[in-house]
Amino acid sequence: MVQLEHGRPTQGILYDVMLSLATQVGVAAEFHVLPRARVQSAMEHGEVDVRCYAAQSWLPNQSGDYIWSILLWSQPDLLIRRPAAAPAIIPANLPHQSIGTVLGYSYPTLQPLFDARQLRRDDARNQEQVLEKLHAGRNQYAVSNQWTLDWFNQRLLPKQQLQSVAILQEQKVGCYVRNDPQVPVQRILRTLLQMKMSGEIDDIIRLYIGQP
């Protein structure tokens, strides 16, 4: 999604999309690296104009005046495991164990199982660390989105690649823009639409995950 070097983004799907967006809109892109919990506050205080890769369902208590783009990406959240001759899994049938998860992420499909203490969260700071722990055998199962799984598997031999055993939910995400007279809101939204319809956004994704 985003690679950071010395605290600044240098490449990744979101970085490339937003850099292209800014160039086509005719403004300079200024990236702010913030903890997830700070992003919404930054939007509300006018510190951030555009946030991408977000879903309205993730922001049920959103305040302020924002305009959402069209849906740009559809991402399945997957239950994954190390390679094995295992059939598809029904999460509710799993025995008591820990599941690799990302700190601060919500997993609606698994939450009832966490609440019942049938499964336990084993949080890591980001999605890559979740997959590294699974690959190292720290957990039997973990949750990952499709892009990160595809990207991670590129570094592994085919027999080592992590595999999906269940689709937990589908995330439909886009961008939203702070509705402010100083922000070229409609130009941003039109450009995102053009980038999606032209295939540019999908081409950027293919650069990183190597799949259609």
Question: Descriptors for this entry?
Answer:
seven-stranded mixed β-sheet, D-Maltodextrin-Binding Protein, domain 2, 9 strands, 2 domains, 212 residues, 32% helix
Short summary:
By secondary structure, this protein is α+β, with helices and mostly antiparallel strands. The chain contains seven helices and nine strands. The model has no long low-confidence stretch (mean pLDDT about 90).
Description:
The chain has helices at 13-25, 36-44, 111-115, 127-135, 146-153, 185-197, 200-209; strands spanning 3-5, 8-11, 50-54, 66-68, 73-81, 97-102, 119-124, 141-145, 163-178. The protein is built from seven helices and nine strands; from the N terminus they run ββααββββαβαβαβαα. It is globular. The protein is an alpha+beta fold. The mean pLDDT is 91. It has two domains: 3-73 and 172-209, Periplasmic binding protein-like II (D-Maltodextrin-Binding Protein, domain 2, 3-Layer(aba) Sandwich); 75-170, Periplasmic binding protein-like II (D-Maltodextrin-Binding Protein, domain 2, 3-Layer(aba) Sandwich).
